[in-house]
Design goal:
With about 300 residues, the chain is an alpha/beta fold. It is built from 5 helices and 14 strands.
Length: about 300
């Protein structure tokens, strides 16, 4: 009796296996993989940087099998390898359709030469970023990305209303900050008290801007109590006026420059805190391209 029951169970198991095996095999693409081919691909995407041709090309190998044999994970992985793709969703619709939803990356700024950075700090590489010239250019060590993003955001706020626009921010490996404005002006800030130095320049800038028709070529903020400037339309330097320091002379001890990167620009204008040096009741003693002048800050 017992052996008869065991034989009956085994027979039922074999029967169920013979019935289920073809179904399982078809669903997993073990056989009849070329049956029910995929003939339709529906794609929802923005198509700003990813084209339909690119999508079709990368997933074509994964769609060479039939409906049941196509693996959606392979389809997703193939599309996700495109540099501009951030997220992919893939679904099957019986009997012959694959639905794709693709979300593209939205670059916030350029990072170095050929890499881009998103708002969340995620960096990705593209074959050619030369056509994205409208994006700000950020650069620095990869482990300081968040610092560079925060500094750029702070600069955008500080420069609001100044008539100047920050196009590029660079943080050197030694920790020195540098800005490039839309006008082409290069601003060396240094690595110490960078926010205070930048704000000191912006506080004085409205008075400086009215004296020149063109923006400066170079601004060096790496001084304790002032900054140096070079203008593009400068004439040869004249002899120092009475009471004004020689522009070729080094800055005074209390205005010592913090030289982290480049040396001071040739024929530079040095501006320093002159609360005790400027004549009483005056705001400036000299206002010229290469002669020192003093501002009551």
């Amino acid at each position: 009796m017992k052996s008869h029951l065991i034989a009956k169970i085994v027979a039922w198991g074999i029967a169920l296996t013979l019935v289920a095996l073809p179904v399982v095999g078809v669903l997993n693409g073990w056989f009849a993989g070329d049956r029910w081919p995929i003939t339709r691909l529906d794609v929802k995407a923005q198509f700003h940087h990813v084209s339909a041709e690119q999508i079709r090309a990368v997933i074509k190998p994964a769609l060479s099998k039939g409906f049941f044999a196509v693996r959606l994970d392979q389809v997703r992985d193939a599309v996700a390898k495109l540099s501009w793709v951030e997220h992919v969703e893939a679904r099957k619709h019986w009997p012959d359709t694959i639905d794709l939803v693709i979300r593209e990356r939205h670059p916030y700024a350029r990072w170095g030469e050929n890499r881009l950075i998103e708002h969340n700090g995620q960096v990705f590489s593209v074959a050619d970023a030369s056509d994205l010239h409208e994006l700000p250019r950020l650069a620095g060590p990869d482990d300081r990305i968040n610092d560079v993003l925060a500094f750029y955001a702070n600069c955008m706020k500080r420069f609001t209303g100044s008539g100047m626009k920050v196009d590029a921010v660079t943080l050197s490996p030694r920790g020195s900050w540098k800005l490039e404005l839309a006008s082409g002006t290069l601003i060396q800030i240094g690595g110490d008290a960078e926010q205070e130095r930048l704000q000191r320049f912006l506080d004085v800038w409205p008075r400086l801007a009215t004296s020149h028709a063109t923006p400066p070529v170079y601004v060096d903020l790496r001084y304790e109590n002032g900054f140096a400037m070079r203008w593009p339309d400068a004439a040869p330097a004249t002899a120092p006026k009475a009471g004004a320091a020689d522009p070729k002379a080094p800055p005074p001890a209390n205005g010592q420059r913090n030289a982290l990167d480049d040396p001071p620009p040739a024929r530079a204008l040095f501006v320093h805190d002159a609360r005790e040096e400027a004549p009483a009741g005056s705001t400036e003693s000299v206002f010229s391209n290469f002669d020192n002048y003093h501002l009551r800050l």
